[in-house]
């Protein structure tokens, strides 16, 4: 059998381990914010929802004007 390519060891696995650790840390932080500061979390969620609505409305308006 042939030898493995030495550069293959340098190619990562897509940041698998670090991505999982970061994802778990973010999930825990969000859970802590929701539990300790529920009114702030609700306010932030409403602001994000409103921002999403504004983006969709803006895109729809742009598409309507473009055609």
Strand content: under 5%
Mean pLDDT across every amino acid position: 87
Q: Treating each run of at least 4 consecutive H or I residues as one helix, how many helices?
A: 2
**Structural class computed from helices and strand pairing:** mainly alpha
List how many beta strands DSSP finds.
0
- Percent helix: over 70%
> Secondary-structure element order, as H and E?
HH
Give Rg in angstroms: 22 Å
* Large-scale geometry: flat
Distance between the termini: 61 Å
Q: How is the main sheet built? A: none
Q: Provide the low-confidence segments as ranges.
A: none
Detailed description of the structure:
This protein has 67 residues and is mostly helical. It is 75% helix and 0% strand. The protein contains 2 helices and no strands. It has helices spanning 16-36, 38-66. Helix 1 crosses helix 2 (38-66). It is flat and about 60 Å long. The N and C termini lie far apart (61 Å). The relative contact order is 0.05.
Give a summary of the structure in a few sentences.
The protein has helices spanning 16-36, 38-66. It is an all-alpha fold and 67 residues long. It is flat, with a radius of gyration of 22 Å.
Record the SSE blueprint.
Elements: H1 16-36, H2 38-66
Helix pairs in contact: 1-2
Question: Which tags fit this structure?
Answer:
mainly alpha, 67 residues
């Amino acid at each position: 059998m042939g030898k493995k390519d030495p550069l293959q060891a340098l190619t990562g696995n897509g940041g698998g381990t670090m991505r999982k650790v970061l994802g778990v840390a973010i999930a825990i932080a969000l859970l802590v914010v929701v539990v300790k500061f529920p009114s702030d979390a609700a306010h932030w969620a409403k602001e994000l929802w409103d921002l999403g609505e504004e983006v969709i409305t803006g895109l729809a308006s742009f598409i309507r004007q473009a055609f």
